[in-house]
Amino acid sequence: MTTNGQLLLGLGARAGVPEEELAAAIDAALRQAGREPAGIAGLATLDRRAAEAGVRAVARRHGWPVTGFPAAALAGVVVPHPSAAVAATAGTPSVAEAAALLAAGPGAVLVLPKRVFPRSTVAIARRVG
């Protein structure tokens, strides 16, 4: 059983995706990982997405703090599934996986590699130690 504080959710999304669409993607990803929202310590994303209404609302729904990282910081994270298309639009080859890993800290591991939905991507990382 995972306790609160060990898992971080990474979220990539197109601009303007509404709360309900993000919530559905996150719920589906959590089900795939066999995790509950209560086991997630926070939501991490690209800095320019962190201020968006849909992202803030879905995080507030679960009581998760939101952390936004600049594209340059995310680009420095080695991920298993980089995307040239994401790099072209976001300035980093990964948002969801990189944000989850960066937020979870040194030595973090993905417990759910990115899951791609129509306008968003979700990944989950676990803190180590």
UniProtKB/TrEMBL annotation:
GO terms for biological process: cobalamin biosynthetic process. Coiled coil: none annotated. It holds the Pfam family CbiG_C. It comes from the Bacteria. InterPro entries: CobE/GbiG_C (IPR002750), CobE/GbiG_C_sf (IPR036518), Precorrin_MeTrfase (IPR051810). Residues 7-125 form the CobE/GbiG C-terminal domain. This is CobE/GbiG C-terminal domain-containing protein. It comes from Actinoplanes nipponensis.
